[in-house]
Structure formats: C-alpha cells, structure tokens
Amino acid sequence: MAHPGPITEVAIFPIASTTTIEQSGTKAGETWASLEETIRNVPGSQEIFWSRWVENKEMVQMIIHWESYDHHMRYRESPDFPGMIEKLTSLMNGKPVMYHVHFTPHPPDAAFNAPVLELFTTYFPASISEEEKTKWYHNFKNFMEQMIVDAEGLVAEAHGWVLEEVEHGKDDAKCKAFLCGIGWDSVDKHMGHRGTESFKSSIGLLREGSLSVEMHHVVFQGGQS
Questions:
Q1: 95: left (phi over 0), alpha (psi -120 to 50) or beta
Q2: SS3 123
Q3: Which of 68, 93, 175, 199 has a beta carbon 3.0–4.6 Å from 168's, enabling a disulfide?
C-alpha cells in the first residue's frame, strides 16, 4: 500500500532512568548522541524530538519526521540499519513500540514545540470499519473544537490515524489506533482542564466505539534537523 507525502515515525523505548542517555560524558549518553546524529544524517529524515515521559521516567518517546514512508523504509533496508539497532538495543531493557502516523497538520511544529506535549492514543478493535472510523473521527473533531474554545493554556494540536496495527492490552492483541498530540503551556494547565465540567461532559465522545485511551506528557529535547 502506498503512503504518499511526509510521515512521522513514533517510537517508545523502555530505557531505565539510571541509564544516563541525557548526560553527554557517559557511555549511554555518547551512544544516544551517536544514534541521534546517525538518524539526522539519513536521507529523508527531517526532525527528531525525544523525551522521557513525565509520568514514567523509564519510558523514552522519540518522534522522527520523514520526507516519506519510503525514505524510512529504505533506511531500514540499508546496511547501516542493523548497527543502529544494535546500539539502541544496548540501552533498552524491554520491547520497543514503533509505528507511523500521517499528522494533520504536518509538520506538527506548533504542538510539538510547546512547553509540554500531551500524547494520547485511542485504541480500537482491529475489525473497526471505515464507517465506524469516520463516525469516531467526527466525535473527535467535536471534542477538540470544544477544548480549543474552553481550555486555558492549550497551544495547538495535531493528530492522525496510525498506519499499522499495534499491540495493546495484557494479551498484546492487534488493534487500530489514533494518535493526538496537544501542546500545552504546562502539565498543570492540562490537568486543570481535565477537572472542568466541559472536559468531563465531552470526554465520552472519545470513548464511544473505542477500547481504551492512554495518555502521557513529554517535554521534548529536539526539533533539530
């Protein structure tokens, strides 16, 4: 299946908080910096963002914008890719998650360059129909339109369906997924909005037809091309 236009690779790496990827003078820090530099130099890579989750310092989020899906796939098939994966594996203590999203808008810079980014993923049965996806997306748009009006501290948002089926839940069942990134002035601004009647009365729109919703915050280190 063709995937024209720019695309975003989304990755989650389990890396212990004691593995000092943030510190340039350490072995882990040098390995991580080398990985970043390698990815930046791959033809077709545009921007890299990364951060540990605010809620769980054992998880590292990486976002890579690519000129196209084919550019990323060509790199994965290149002789340089196994060496990069070997370095990455040396830092991890578990199984990574990786998939692709066509964000609207692209690039989603206004949201991703905010002081804090909320990332929430909505999961659906793998059997969800196009009609059901369209109906849910209509609910999502209504939810976001209301939030944009009511939420103090909301900077911008970007969203898109995940191209691949992803594993989710205790049994790692295959699911469809939708990812939304919302930029905020602070975590407190977001959490304050979650306590409002406006949020409580509209969040049900996202739960209709879905299996679950997962949310976390990141404070990105990147944006470098």
A1: beta
A2: strand
A3: 175
